[in-house]
Write a structure and sequence with these properties.
- The structure holds three protein chains of three kinds.
- By secondary structure, chain A is of the alpha/beta class.
- In chain A, 45% of the residues lie in helices and 16% in strands.
- In chain A, strand 1, helix 3 and strand 2 form a beta-alpha-beta unit.
- The two termini of chain A are 43 Å apart.
- Chain C is mainly alpha-helical.
- The chains are: A alpha/beta, B mainly alpha, C mainly alpha.
């Protein structure tokens, strides 16, 4: 909470500076400076929750590509473009972090984004890029129905999530593995897999290992020891690769999240998720850029709001096995038959990894772990 | 001046951006900042040469590229020779098309193909197991140095072949025949006449394959299983993951320096090989 | 055969060891391609090998797909633009480099080769930062992307055109000029026929390299329009789908078809001639 107050303070300062700069360089007359003055105040522009005519404006978003993009386009974006009379420019080429940084907070590369918390928090540390959760909540009707943890990051709203689990081949492993530490059993040498350090799943894996074998998720030394003990181990750089390796049997137990595992199960592949008492979660989180121009900002808020609607959440659950963060969303059958529920009780024990701590120590973790992986 | 548009293009879109990037490497590291600050500080380079993980990566990159170039030459020359010496037009066109199609396959999809072939439960290991050559333990052909070498060779082989075919074809057959008629064996003719005459192609191919392997990001990432960390991977990690533009730029400068040295070596060798006719 | 007697029969047979190694190379080159083609023709539900059966369903899915087909077409357009500009610029540069002697010529050659020596991601990044700070309005636009591609394909054009100019005798051009032909006519009648294999080869190279280019495109891609390699990478991060393999097949199909067409126009072997020195 204090952080938010601090944020608002710095914003006021920056606002003042902006005005002064503009008045000084006021030479650039005409439409441009008018636009700039709007720009300086656009932080205060908010949305009232009703559809409006954007007069053909273009909003830039960053979001995952491929099938995800096709789904978003047909389920949200097409209707959105019609309702609001706007155009959505969809950038699916990850990485987006450098693009944001290269443009700076005041001229945001994107107006709205959907990505992972670790990247979002990292960007938040690099500058004042995003609207805070307070501001988001105040501007989106659907936000009121969401579970509290959806706003836990302070910088964006989590609209979907899934539990971190290990995927294991039920037909290749007997007896069944139990618990988190099963990953380290000798019988899985070189048949277990995790991800590269830039993947959020690795970070979760690391912190969970630190908690399991050490004094807590921030026990770096324990985490490093666990990594050393896990070698030899295969390293994937994305979940698609992990999926293929599991399907081909190259990997028998791997770091994953339940959505992918459910997907493989429904495809008929002999896998099952392995979970344990602690329940770290992986999240899909939306951010809205603070310094966008007024129209684009309102569009961004409206688009995020659309993603929080119960109907959309159910569809996303259907397509990606994502758990909804809207308490009013009903679960699709394919999630229900895996034992997932959308109640306050279902959230017991779920925790979001402490990305702040991880990012503060990221350099050291990355360099040390890379040395360990390189053997 | 005929070269004017090209030169201007290169200066504006190549020299200037790179110069900015190199200047960036002389700034103090700062998380959110991607613009040049003109600090002229060398700490990024101190860091690079100070930590083993980085300068070892430089050696690894150069060594890997050199090894791949050599292997590509050994494998590529015969194929180029075959294409060059095949007089049947249909056949040599088919061979050329095959080589060019192999170039066209996207790297990520190729990874799948290679995984099927070289993975622990892949076709090659399956064959070895079936024929009894190895026991239960699979040959680790992927996600290690060997995998990266194979991946890079597979990727750059067409470039080597294409650098060689024209040159080999251009060798005047009268020279080879003259050597034979003077009593040289086939093998002597090959090593004393054909190979030296192919030198321009050999050198061009080596340089090209070196450049491709040295600067490749995708292949070591997808085939190396994170055990083969070369400079492009470090750059990517520093810039994209950690937001350390300045340090990433410093690594790029080191890469450029190494390539420059290699280029110079190539130029010297090329001049010597063509008897100064260049 | 008596010593001194020149052999009449042109003995071109390739020694066995060469053939064997050549076959090894071919197998190495083509094996992944074959695997991918078969996987893309899989009648089953996901990317497996060996395929469960053969079917065109994934090829059809590729045509219907909202992500891959537009990416394929965009890559095609991008590669054609790149080929056009790269060929023109590269040929001009190669002509100047080959015809003239001047101090620092070696450096100039190295300079134009330099884009190949750096990782594509470095080039893309440097260009991205440059676009942002220069305010030329090239950020995240197609021209910006084309520029990046031209940078990395130009060296190939320069290499192939240069190779066709090795040993080029300026006296032919001078003779034509002295006979009254203007510079354009001289170029058309004398120079162009000599360098045309080199130009065609360079164009082909630049097309192929641009179509498959991933590294440079990573930062320069405009939103909404992805080149195929980026679209494939984005989608394959999450699921390895046969549609992706089908996309790969189509890229190959494109090359084969265009090569067959080119083969009609010229002997393909003549295309393979590269020289950077």
């Amino acid at each position: 909470m204090n952080d938010n107050k601090k944020l608002i303070q710095t914003n006021k300062l920056q606002l003042g500076l902006n005005r002064r700069q503009l008045l000084k360089t006021g030479a650039a007359a005409g439409a441009v400076s008018m636009f700039n003055i709007n720009h300086a105040w656009s932080k205060d522009v908010m949305w009232d929750g009703e559809p409006f005519d954007a007069d053909g404006a273009t909003i830039r978003i960053n979001e995952w590509g491929g099938f995800w993009q096709e789904f978003m386009t047909s389920n949200v974006i097409e209707d959105f473009e019609k309702t609001y009379n706007c155009k959505v420019a969809y950038d699916s080429s990850f990485p987006w972090f450098p693009k944001y940084v290269a443009s700076g907070p005041k001229d945001p590369a994107f107006h709205m984004g959907n990505w992972n918390l670790n990247e979002i928090i990292k960007l938040g540390k690099a500058g004042d890029y995003f609207l805070s959760t307070e501001e988001l909540k105040a501007n989106m009707p659907n936000a009121a129905d969401c579970w509290d943890f959806a706003f836990g990051s302070g910088l964006g709203v989590t609209w979907g999530f899934g539990q971190y689990a290990h995927v294991w081949r039920t037909d290749l492993i007997d007896p069944a593995p139990k618990g988190f530490a099963a990953f380290w059993e000798d019988r899985f040498a070189d048949k277990r897999a995790t991800y590269i350090t830039s993947n959020g799943l690795f970070m979760t894996f690391f912190m969970t290992a630190a908690a399991e074998f050490g004094s807590g998720p921030d026990d770096m030394e324990a985490g490093f020891e666990a990594m050393r003990a896990a070698m030899p181990m295969k390293i994937s750089d994305f979940t698609g690769n992990m999926q293929t390796q599991v399907e081909r049997g190259e990997v028998q137990i791997g770091v994953q999240w339940e959505g992918e595992i459910f997907l493989q199960m429904d495809k008929g592949i002999e896998v099952a998720p392995l979970t344990w008492e602690q329940k770290p979660i992986l999240t899909q989180t939306h951010t809205v850029s603070r310094y966008s121009d007024p129209v684009e900002k309102k569009l961004a808020l409206a688009l995020v709001n659309a993603k929080l609607s119960p109907e959309f959440q159910t569809k996303a659950g259907e397509a990606f096995y994502l758990r909804p963060s809207n308490s009013k969303a009903s679960l699709p059958e394919r999630l229900k038959n895996k034992g997932v529920t959308n109640t306050a009780g279902a959230l017991e024990g779920l925790w979001i990894p402490d990305w702040n701590w991880y990012l503060d120590n990221e350099d050291e973790i990355v360099e040390t772990v890379n040395e360990i992986f390189a053997g | 001046m005929l070269a004017a548009p090209g030169t201007i293009f290169f200066i504006v879109f190549f020299v200037v951006p790179l110069a900015s990037l190199f200047l960036l490497s002389l700034d103090k590291p700062s998380l959110g900042n991607a613009s040049v600050q003109w600090m002229f500080d060398f700490r990024n380079f101190e860091r690079f040469f100070g930590r083993a993980i980085y300068y070892e990566a430089a050696l690894r990159s150069a060594g890997l590229a050199a090894l791949v170039s050599l292997i590509a030459l050994i494998l590529g020359y015969p194929l180029a020779f075959l294409i060059a010496k095949t007089t049947n037009v249909r056949r040599n066109t088919t061979l050329m098309i095959l080589v060019l199609s192999a170039m066209q396959l996207d790297m990520v999809i190729r990874l799948f193909g290679l995984m099927v072939l070289m993975g622990d439960v892949g076709l090659i290991n399956g064959f070895f197991r079936w024929s009894g050559l190895i026991g239960d333990q699979p040959l680790p052909l992927m996600y290690n140095f060997a995998g990266v070498v194979v991946g890079l060779v597979q990727f750059s082989l067409p470039f080597m072949v294409l650098s060689l075919v024209g040159v080999i074809q251009g060798i005047n057959p009268a020279l080879e025949e003259a050597a034979r008629s003077l009593g040289a064996t086939r093998s002597q003719t090959f090593w004393k006449v054909t190979i030296p005459m192919s030198m321009p192609g050999i050198l061009a191919g080596l340089l090209l394959v070196f450049a491709i392997s040295f600067s490749s990001y995708v292949v070591p990432t997808l085939m190396g299983g994170w055990t083969v960390v070369v400079l492009p991977i470090h750059i990517f990690q520093q810039v994209v993951e950690l937001g350390k533009w300045q340090f990433g730029a410093a690594i790029a400068v080191v890469m450029f320096a190494i390539s420059f040295i290699v280029m110079m070596i190539y130029q010297r060798a090329a001049v010597r090989a063509s008897g100064g006719r260049v | 055969m008596a010593k001194g007697q020149v052999k009449v029969r042109r003995e071109r047979s390739v020694p066995v060891i060469m053939r064997v190694l050549a076959m090894v190379s071919l197998v190495l080159l083509l094996a992944p391609v074959v695997v991918v083609i078969l996987a893309g023709l899989n009648s089953g539900d996901h990317l497996t090998f060996p395929p469960d059966g053969l079917s065109l369903r994934w090829v059809v899915a590729f045509f219907r797909s909202g992500a891959f087909l537009p990416a394929y077409l965009f890559s095609l357009l991008l590669a054609l633009c790149t080929m056009f500009f790269s060929t023109i610029l590269g040929t001009m540069i190669a002509l100047v480099l080959a015809r003239n002697e001047f101090p620092g010529k070696q450096m100039a050659r190295a300079f134009f080769m330099a884009p190949l020596m750096l990782p594509g991601i470095v080039l893309g990044l440097a260009l991205y930062l440059f676009y942002l700070s220069s305010g030329l309005g090239l950020t995240r636009t197609m021209p910006g992307l084309v520029i990046g591609h031209v940078l990395v394909t130009c060296p190939y054009v320069i290499g192939t055109v240069n190779a066709s100019l090795v040993g080029f005798d300026k006296s032919y051009e001078e003779a034509a000029r002295s006979l009254g032909a203007g510079p354009l006519k001289t170029f058309r009648i004398i120079t162009l026929p000599i360098i045309s294999p080199g130009i065609i080869a360079g164009s082909v190279f630049s097309f192929i390299v641009s179509f498959g280019q991933f590294d440079v495109s990573l930062f320069l891609t405009p939103p909404d329009y992805n080149p195929l390699p980026i679209a494939l990478y984005s989608s394959l991060r999450y699921t390895f789908e046969p549609t992706a393999a089908a996309a790969g097949i189509f890229a190959i199909f494109l090359v084969v078809v265009s090569m067959l067409i080119t083969a009609r126009l010229t002997n393909l072997r003549k295309l393979a001639n590269v020289n950077f020195s």
